[in-house]
Every structure is written in structure tokens, then in C-alpha cells.
Design brief:
This protein is α/β, with parallel strands linked by helices. The chain is built from 15 helices and 11 strands.
């Protein structure tokens, strides 16, 4: 009975789990799926695959090149700067930071007649100071926990000279630009504008803001002696969010809503027409298009030499390198105790023989001493010249002469004394021991 109830409960659970609409009750947004990347090959909602493809389709005759995220604008060469047709550099991401050296290289690229288009929700202070504007608003990175958070009301986008409104229910598009000098403390940005709002008129206050923006740009470039101009190409509600600034023969185009190149924005309503209008606003048809999806770009590269630009880190690294060099210099020497000078080893065997010889000599046992001297000599001959000393005959004499180089007379005299001592036929007194000793020493010294 219990087993049957268990089966029934299991079947009921499977039915409920697979019933239509049941999955919706547990549906949750995958943060990784909805993460902003704006990569040109990313087909997730906030990738920029459609934005990149729209650029290629709108300019079919242009060649497209993808730059790596870590690309530095100081690497812009003559080929990029001076082509048969103006080149376009499109930068799509969230936080755009740039060093002073890169900013100078980017301006040189623009002055040669090329175009730079930057989609960003936060601009580097160097760029803002140079252009005399500031970027405000932008809630693109708000954390999404469930589907309800996807319906955040974004500001409506409008292009200059066009009454069409563009928007979507997704992450905010509320970024805009204002003159750098006009910032007010405590200013907040409304990110809850209704998508169905129709109030897109440009009020006198907005016109005054745009005029102030142009004045700030005039002041920023007053000392450059270059041709410059500014156009407001689009608005987020009634705030300028799409600007084009002329520098030399080219332009820098700034867009405060980077998500307009995302897949999620372009797939809703007629938003693709908005991005096409952005490409259509470019002053000329490009010959080469460079695309860089930087996401959150750093102003400095990750190379070690960047640390030398700052005085504090430069001195710190210099001191560390100096201390390390001194340590290595002194520790590289091999450390060991002083090796004492030892006296050469004495030949104790010779000393022993001399001592024993003196003992026998002092006791008057000359015969025994003579036997010891002969045994020592024959042992020396065997070890040194490899001669057989068991039989001491004429052959032994000839071999001893050849090995030692001694004359025959000395060899025969010594061999005769050896026979006498072995046969005990000699009287080994002091003179006899003296002659035996000197006869043997002649052979020893010759070696």
C-alpha cells in the first residue's frame, strides 16, 4: 500500500513539473546570459553582433577590421591615418578611459580627415576636459535579478530632424552630455520616463544648454588653431546624447547610450532604423572600418613600463631593484669556512722502519737487522718492478740491472750479500751493515 502511494506521488510530481506554464513559475534571469559585453561576435542579448553586422551591411564597400580590446591608440600608423578614403574607428563599450598620449594620437587620427565614433556610458576625464563636456546619467550596469527588472523604463531616443521615437523595455538609455562648467551639486537623472511619452520638444532651456555646450567647445579648442565645429545629432528625451565634434578635417562622434548597438535593443520595434540613421550621419563613405569592443577600457596598458610614469612607483621600483642588486652581488659569492693549511702527511712506514732499525742496532742484533733489511728490499723490488724474488739467480740479476739501470757490479755485489745473509754465512758486524745499507740505498735513490 505504501509503495503504491509512493508511485502515485511520484507521478503527480512529474505531471506538475512538466505541465505547461509550470516552468514560468521558477523562471529566473541568468545573469551571465544578460551580462553586457558589446562584443561584435556575441549573440547574447547585450552583445553587439547585430550592431557590427549592420555597420558592414550599411557600408558594403568598406573593409572591416576588428581591433583587440587591449589595442592602444598610440599604435595607429600611417596606413590607418592616411587612406584613399576616410577611415572610421568605432569604439563600443561602457567605460572609456584613455591616457594623454593616446588622446593625442586619436586627435591626430581625426585631424587627418578620419572619423571616430565612441559609444560609452562613462568618459575619461582627459577626454571630457579636452572637449569641455561631461557625460551624465547612465544606469546600464544595474544588476538584474529577475524578469521584472528587465522592464525598466528607458528614456526615449530621438534623432535631430526626425520625429520618430526609439526605445525598448530593457536596461536604461538615459545618458546625455552637458557643458563641463554647468554641473550642479545634487543633480539627479530621471530613469523612469514612460516609453509612450510624446513630449520631445526642445525647450528654451535645452537650447540654452546646447549653446553653452558649443561655447565650451570653442573655448577648449581656442588655442589649437584648427577648424572645429559641433553638431547635436540626437537626444535622450530633451537632453543631447548624440554629438559630433569636428577637429581638423575629421570628427569625433560621441553617443551616450552604448546599448543602441546591442542585440536586445536592435531586435525590438524599428530600432534598427535608429542605428542605420547613426551610420547614415557619418560625413563620408569610409574605405576602412575599425571596430573595437572594449567593454571597460583602461587608460593605461598593463605593461610594466606604465609603472615608471608615476613618481611614487618609479622611486619604489628603483629602490627595490637597487636593494635586490646589492643583495645578489654579495650573496652570489660562495660562503664557506676558511680551509686551514694542513702540513703534508709524513711517511709513517719509513719512520717505523727507521725506528725498528735503530732498536735492533742498539741491541747489537745485527744478523736479525740484516735479515729485515733484505726482506724490505726484496718487497720493494716486487712492488716497484714486479720481479719474482723467490729465486735469486743470474736471470734475476740481469732483470734487476735492466729495471733499475744500475751497473752489473753493484747488482752482483748486492745479490751476493743477500745470499750470504740468507745462508747465515756472513758475519754482519757494523762495517758489513754499513756496506749493505749503502748498497740498498743506491737502488732506492735511483728510483
Amino acid at each position: 500500500m505504501r509503495r503504491r502511494c509512493t508511485y502515485h506521488l511520484l507521478l503527480l510530481w512529474l505531471f506538475v513539473a512538466t505541465a505547461p506554464g509550470c516552468g514560468k513559475l521558477k523562471a529566473r534571469i541568468d545573469p551571465e546570459k544578460w551580462r553586457i559585453t558589446l562584443k561584435q561576435d556575441d549573440k547574447k542579448p547585450y552583445g553587439a553582433y547585430l550592431g557590427y553586422e549592420s555597420l558592414k551591411r550599411y557600408f558594403p564597400g568598406a573593409t572591416t577590421t576588428i581591433l583587440p580590446p587591449q589595442y592602444r591608440f598610440t599604435s595607429i600608423d600611417e596606413k590607418m591615418r592616411r587612406g584613399k578614403q576616410p577611415n572610421v574607428l568605432v569604439l563600443a563599450g561602457l567605460r572609456f578611459y584613455i591616457s594623454e598620449e593616446e588622446l593625442s594620437a586619436l586627435e591626430a587620427f581625426v585631424r587627418d580627415g578620419n572619423e571616430v565614433v565612441i559609444f560609452s556610458n562613462r568618459l575619461d576625464g582627459n577626454l571630457e576636459s579636452r572637449l569641455g563636456i561631461e557625460k551624465l546619467g547612465g544606469m546600464e550596469e544595474a544588476y538584474i535579478t529577475d524578469s521584472a527588472k528587465l522592464t525598466v523604463n528607458a528614456r526615449l531616443l530621438r534623432l535631430a530632424g526626425n520625429d520618430s521615437l526609439y526605445g525598448y523595455r530593457g536596461r536604461a538609455l538615459n545618458g546625455f552630455f552637458r557643458p563641463l562648467e554647468s554641473e550642479e551639486e545634487g543633480q539627479s537623472v530621471d530613469s523612469t520616463t514612460d516609453l509612450n511619452a510624446n513630449d520631445t520638444s526642445i525647450t528654451p532651456e535645452v537650447e540654452n544648454t546646447i549653446d553653452t555646450l558649443i561655447d565650451s567647445l570653442q573655448q577648449a579648442y581656442a588655442d589649437d588653431n584648427i577648424i572645429w565645429r559641433i553638431d547635436t545629432l540626437g537626444y535622450a528625451d530633451s537632453e543631447a546624447n548624440f554629438l559630433r565634434i569636428g577637429i581638423g578635417e575629421g570628427h569625433i562622434t560621441l553617443h551616450a547610450a552604448p546599448l543602441v548597438v546591442s542585440n536586445y535593443f536592435l531586435l525590438q520595434q524599428d530600432n534598427i532604423n535608429y542605428l542605420n540613421a547613426v551610420w547614415a550621419s557619418l560625413p563620408s563613405r569610409p574605405g576602412q572600418i575599425y571596430w573595437a569592443s572594449y567593454y571597460k577600457r583602461r587608460g593605461e596598458s598593463a605593461k610594466v613600463w606604465v609603472l615608471w610614469r608615476h613618481r611614487a612607483t618609479k622611486w619604489g621600483l628603483s629602490l627595490a631593484i637597487f636593494v635586490l642588486s646589492v643583495y645578489i652581488l654579495f650573496q652570489a659569492k660562495r660562503r664557506q669556512r676558511v680551509i686551514p693549511v694542513l702540513p703534508p702527511l709524513r711517511n709513517d712506514s719509513v719512520s717505523f722502519v727507521e725506528t725498528v732499525g735503530r732498536l735492533y742496532y742498539n741491541k747489537g742484533n745485527h744478523a736479525n737487522l740484516a735479515h729485515k733489511m733484505v726482506q724490505q728490499f726484496l718487497e720493494w723490488v716486487r712492488v716497484t718492478y714486479y720481479l719474482n724474488t723467490n729465486i735469486i739467480n743470474e736471470d734475476f740479476i740481469m732483470q734487476l740491472m735492466q729495471k733499475t739501470g744500475q751497473p752489473e757490479e753493484k747488482a752482483r755485489s748486492l745479490v751476493l750479500m743477500i745470499h750470504e745473509i740468507k745462508a747465515d754465512s756472513a758475519t754482519p758486524d757494523d762495517p758489513y751493515l754499513y756496506r749493505l745499507h749503502h748498497a740498498i740505498e743506491d737502488f732506492y735513490s735511483n728510483k
